[in-house]
Amino acid sequence: MAYCQRFFISLNLYFNIKSMSVLITNIKELLQVRDTNVLKVSGSDMKILPTIKNAYIYMEHDTIVAYGSMQDLTSMEADKVIDATGKIVLPTWCDSHTHIVYAGHREQEFVDRINGLSYEDIANRGGGILNSAEKLQNTNEEDLYQQSIQRVRKVMQLGTGALEIKSGYGLTVEAELKMLRVIKRIKKEFPIKVKATFLGAHALPKTYKEDKKGYLDLIINEMLPQIEKEELAHFMDVFCEKGYFSLEDTDRLLTAGKKHGLTPKIHVNQFNAFGGIALGVKHNALSVDHLEELKDEDIQALKGSNTIAVALPSCSYFLSIPYTPARKIIDAGLPLALATDYNPGSTPSGNMNFVVSTACIKMKMTPEEAINAATINGAYAMGISNQYGSITRGKKANLIITKPVPSYNFLPYAFGENHIDTVIINGNIL
User: Fold this and answer.
1) pTM above 0.90, yes or no
2) φ, ψ for residue 195, nearest 5 deg
3) How sure is the predictor about 3, in pLDDT bands with cuts at 50, 70 and 90?
């Protein structure tokens, strides 16, 4: 009991958690200002990033209350006043695709790829997801939590204020539930917004290598009912890919997930394009993620739907695979979100600043498009853009204050530097 009390005291000190009002003045430029509650931006609208120069913003407790030009600022008192002269303020990043809860690392596979093995080669040798699953199965819940929160703290300091976290490195009933319980604990004990995704269909475990139907039955008949009972997840995800789970498997799993109250998402088109996006749209998936391989019929399937495409450029960078064709998606009038895919095998980084830079450098997105994709559209891909992702009155006070910079174009341009001075989450200064 004494240990728990000390832990929570130290956690509160770390996050400086207390109810307070904060006024930021003399902001060089306030980004992503939307007076109406826009839920996402699409197509050519992604090139528009509404801003106010020489601005202020006022927050009470965890909520944005007022903002505007400094010339319109009347006498206003606050518990904390921050002078942001020369600095830019924008919403915190909304990272809608992570596997941040995992055990151990896979740096040997990194070396294996340098020596010529492909992602598929490593998986066929029992590496990849199965490697992480074995490590996680042999890690107790408290140790898994302690490993994971170190990463959560780091991404918060890097400006992430909302985080989706997937299971999928358990691949047994006990281990998948362990992952989801750790995610639920992070959600409870940290101020960052967390959404949980059940990804039991991430790979076939060794014990079901010759019995895929048996594993699907295990997910549907044992995992899903327990997840619903304990309220452990918001979303249901499937790795729809050759060698993993087919269209038929994915259709069956998403149908079952919806019966247990889980909104569909899909890992799709990472290595092959064979109809997974249309299937996601059929199930009204909130997002379809990866899309490194994309056909014209995939674009057509997304048009007119509520499903958002999510690109993961750090994964392409790390694996040396194609980048999601952002220009093709945006120029077709569609919305696009950016996320990290933080995981031990294909993207051991949760740095959304690097994601934004890489999207500009390698995917030919403009800074405005990339910032929109990493804030308001990232929030949409988690189903939280009514409260996160933009500077809007009544939304959560989740902000990044940069160091002094020439312009917001400098943020993706100078990709090797940390431009963040201060992070505010729920009105609290980290």
Assistant:
1) yes
2) -120, 135
3) very low
